[in-house]
Amino acid sequence: MLALVVFAGCMKDDEWINRHQTGTQLPKGLFIVNEGNFMYGNASLSFYDPATRNVQNELFYNTNGLPLGDVAQSMVIRDNLGYIVINNSGKIYIINISNGKYVGKITGLTSPRYIHFLNNEKAYITDLYAGQITVINPKTYQITGAIQTIGHASTEQMVQWNDLLFVSCWSFDNTVLVIDTKTDAIVNEIKTGKQPGGLFLDKYNKIWTLCDGGWSNTGKTIRTPMLQRIDPATRTIDKSFSLSSDAKPSRLTINGSRDSLLFINDGIRKFSVNQSTLDDRPFLSAQNHLFYSIAIDPQSSELYLSDAIDYLQRGIIYRYSAQGAKIDSFKTGIIPGAFCFK
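Below the sequence we write its predicted structure tokens.
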């Protein structure tokens, strides 16, 4: 693999891929983005067909003859194209979701995390270290501008309400930025709990975020993980639910009808957006699993959970019904961290 990376690095991705590209038609299904190990360049892309339960691992490599890169972070689909954000490689690969074939890439990024589309000619990319949100033109794959996030080095997930974009500042921060998408100006900063991550808009047009509380290696730091609700109209937090100080919540997600939230915390927790208190018991228990990521099929409401095992071997995906009954399980690549439904 190292020899392949070195040899391929001597020519442009486009030139290498054009010589080695193959591909087959992909049915309706689920892309799984496997992070791989930091600095090992072993990120990969898997595809799962729920109807046949068939799994295709190493889809990007097998289709295009090139490794995906170093730490695959997220994926978004728009207009039959899949945008795969490769964090430590500082780029975004673009594929045709019908067959997995490479069609282009976006480069010149520092440590990209997520991409959000405004329209066919404008999208935002958050970044772990750059201290800015990058603006690109998806048609040309070119960077067209940047929004400086002075005082906030890390930007993470995004959600849009009308012309306002809400962006969480995750790493060692406690802020959700509000950006006017017509002017690319930061118009508000909302203070939240420590380290807000995912942002989701519910059926009542309220925004939810899960703050993991940061970490304390010594046990002397007071940490309060929180689930919070933001009113985008007033740009204020109007509801807040505290978790125990030893809780380690992560990976907030929302169902297709946008009335229930799920997240990982010693198993899987489920929360109706109309609830007044958090449930004490998990919706699904952790048992012996190291749950790492979570996704909900927006149409069937089936639940997909990834188990990173030891972060070194290939991970496992568990598929459950909306009621929590196990349907299937299958192996993917190393550290399956993100899902994208086709």
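The radius of gyration is 20 Å.
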